[in-house]
């Protein structure tokens, strides 16, 4: 996969390539002013990663590509991108392990000229860095030999321990609040079954509970923050299907409008402009090919963009619905599963193919188009497929 660009209103036939990588580029970012695209790539699979930048505005002759610049032209390193900065849009925060292969030093990288400024020399086993809305380093995550992580709050030039979790617990930060004084924390530390969202004060070390799953079944999947007003738009849970718990009424209205257009599908907000005036929306379901639309949030105009499974569109009439089901295990706990019965067949006395997900602690199954279960249904038009969960996939509670 390479990076292509087009104008919003242009057809995809008018898109033009920016890169010509022999290996897929899995992730890219726009700099915050939209001047460059940056991405991480190794050299023919050697896993030595460098950071590259390319300008979509460079004038080139037809059939040629704009110049791609290697911003970290060092050998035998693995560079990583931590943050695309907003206050200084020509910069981003990156990690380089050129000094110590095991740990990353933190640098500010200027995209226009490749200038590097050392922000933090990592001699303290720091595994990750967290920044506030002013692009300032505020939290460092220190990991010891036993897997215990200590959250260190940067107060002036002093690092103060404020929180700790061991490797059997989940704890991670989201963003800072609108005052830039507290941060959102998701954790299941202590006598907590499901991950819970807190607002954490790094000065007093007090955690104010905001919410966990309203029906007490699954962990938090995502906390969506509005980057303009710095407030929570929604929390997202994936139970039998994806569920939004809205904190913003205007976004809830927008979602309900989309649900009125696609009542039997799940809706995901894939990408958006900085002012949220235009959104890329993905709609998908168990027996439909996924589709991507451009939504104008002011006019509510929806414009179809593409489907990544064009050939599947012609086969949708043959696909079967996937039903969420639950059953009791031998020790009385509930096992969630999905059952797919061939369309038009009475669900009684039919052969069953059981398809456990890759577990036991891996990612769970979802309500979505699954080619394996649809294939099972088509073997003889009488074969039922059931996807059942292991007891400890990452989404479910600690009791399972």
UniProtKB/TrEMBL annotation:
InterPro entries linked to this entry: AB_hydrolase_fold
SUPFAM superfamilies on file: alpha/beta-Hydrolases, DPP6 N-terminal domain-like
Name under which the protein is recorded: Peptidase S9 prolyl oligopeptidase active site domain protein
Species the sequence originates in: Candidatus Uhrbacteria bacterium GW2011_GWF2_39_13
Taxonomy of the source species: Bacteria, Candidatus Uhriibacteriota
